[in-house]
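Just curious. Protein, please.
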Amino acid sequence: MTIAIVTDSTAYLTDEQYREHHIYRLPLSVIIDGKVLKEEEEINSTDFFDQIRDDKDLPTSSQPTIGEIESLFHQLSKDYDAVISIHLSSKISGTYQTVSSISHYTEDIAVYPYDSGISCSAQGYFALEAARMAQNGANVEDIFERFEEMQQTLQAYFVVDDLKHLVRGGRLSNGAAQIGTLLKIKPILYFEQKQIVIFEKIRTSKKALKRIESLLEEDVDKGYPIVSTIIHANAEDKAVEWREQLEARFPSVTFNISYFGPVIGTHLGEGALGMTWVKDFS
């Protein structure tokens, strides 16, 4: 069986990774001043933050249309028997549900949707591992079993400058945001049961990042190989500086840098910084 690997654009893989690993991208869109723009194709992260920095109205995001999804799967059916389609958390986007509904009536290719329960580089880990396994002859069951293994060690934490973006986008409760605003804290956020929630309340961004480092250290001490990614929202200088510090402290860990693109940036705001990691199976 030949298996195609699809992930939506919120995995924020590089163009090189898509080409090298033969992964197919399904773009989500942002809507700015009534204009619909496909992220990673019609607008990139830097341009997105430049455009919205002084806007009073928060941009919105939208999932791929049914027609776009069906068109991609039909195209893939010419060369593949099946597709594993990996998506951001079903609690923050309807993309997974839409693909799932399409999978029930697609006849020319078998479609296996996967809800990563997360987004960004953490989501990308699943796509990269699935592509590696598919190229080595693994079947769908093998790949989904590996996904379950990955979920056991997958961690992701992030800090935002302004919680209001998450509230206005419906991704965090207003009560949680008021805690951060009134107490002037920088809470560490993470995904729990596929939703963004507060992990811990920290007084400053510096202390929040140090706390995330301590969480990474707990897993490093368990002895298995780890790959980690620092993720930033138009704050590359901070990400590079943090990576240098982390590489010195954790020489056994492979560190990469990625970003929060337009769709996720809509909800986190400029300046957000986070880190994700997982057991390295490569």
